[in-house]
Specification:
Elements (H helix, E strand, L loop, with lengths): L2 H30 L11 H7 L9 H21 L4 H22 L4 H10 L2 H10 L7
Length: 139
């Protein structure tokens, strides 16, 4: 397979699988840590209406979804790409970072969560994935 095709595939697979991991955790979260009665977590409007009822424990799974989705997607991109592996890991991290930043404007969450999420979930986990995937050990 040509390197450019493989590198494009690395980004596509990283984004798709990372998104699947993210959504799986977002869906699992309310089943494992039930949200207060009357909050519709399936829409941004429903979340906005009930956000004041949420406790810190309700933000564990959204953070894990963002961090682990980025980690898995960036790791796969690192393993599939043909060279400059950290660049591919960080590409996935930046794409998810910008998605998280957009969420900050679309879904009103507490400021502490938005800062924690944007600062700790995306680029640090993409960097970690790059290191775990062998970035820096290339010949």
């Amino acid at each position: 397979m040509k390197p450019i095709i493989r590198n494009i595939l690395a980004v596509v697979v990283g984004l798709v699988v990372g998104s699947v991991v993210n959504m799986a955790l977002i869906i699992a979260g309310p089943k494992l840590i039930p949200v207060p009665e009357g909050i519709d977590v399936t829409t941004a409007e429903g979340l906005a209406v009930g956000m004041h009822l949420m406790q810190p424990k309700h933000f564990i799974f959204p953070f894990l979804a963002h961090a682990l989705g980025t980690l898995v997607g960036a790791y796969l991109a690192t393993k599939i790409s043909t060279g400059n592996k950290m660049r591919f890991a960080l590409t996935i991290g930046f794409v998810f970072f910008f998605g998280g930043l957009m969420n900050c404007f679309m879904i009103p969450a507490p400021t502490w969560f938005m800062i924690t999420d944007v600062v700790l979930a995306y680029l640090p986990f993409a960097w970690l994935a790059g290191r775990l995937g062998g970035a820096g050990k290339e010949q």
